[in-house]
Amino acid sequence: MDNFLLYFELGLRHILDINGYDHILFVIALGIIFMFRDWKRVLVLVTAFTVGHSITLALSAFDLIDYDHRKIEKLIVLTILVTAVANLFRKKYSENKKLVSMNSVLALFFGLIHGLGFSTYFKTLLGREKSIIGPLFAFNIGLEVGQIIVVLAVLITTSLFVNLAGVRRRDWVLIISSAVAGIAVSFLI
């Protein structure tokens, strides 16, 4: 149980760590197009991301893949930028079921990339663990809980600005997505 809590906390902190805010930015860009009533759809997206993340963590932990970390870090920033920029060109948001399906595939794919970015550190943490299954499961549960916390914050903030403050939904998406895209571009530069 101690090991579970250790890896659970690691997954949780991996998402919620303000110094590693690339994941937070990605989840914000992913969720900003949704309203609180769409929470189930957003949960599908973040779960798809977690699945992709855990696949590459497992492949890396078993030494089945090798890659250049510098390229992966740039790809992670590109996933944030692509997601934020795509929001800028959307005419409709959460009502479109095809959009949610396409976003789920992208979230899964982008999760694969983000998982690679963390895999070397994760392998180091595993050290002499006899099995990676338990630590990987606990880490990903923590990751999922952290993403849900970020998504809830995004959905609540969106509801406050759109429903209570009267900000037009499209304007809200444009403002937040532009800010996320701007931060991603600054990372690339």
Automatic annotation (TrEMBL):
Signal peptide: none annotated. It comes from the Bacteria. The chain crosses the membrane at residues 20-36, 43-62, 74-90, 102-122, 145-165, 172-188. Keywords: Membrane, Transmembrane, Transmembrane helix. This is HupE / UreJ protein. The lineage of its organism: Bacteria, Pseudomonadati, Bacteroidota, Cytophagia, Cytophagales.
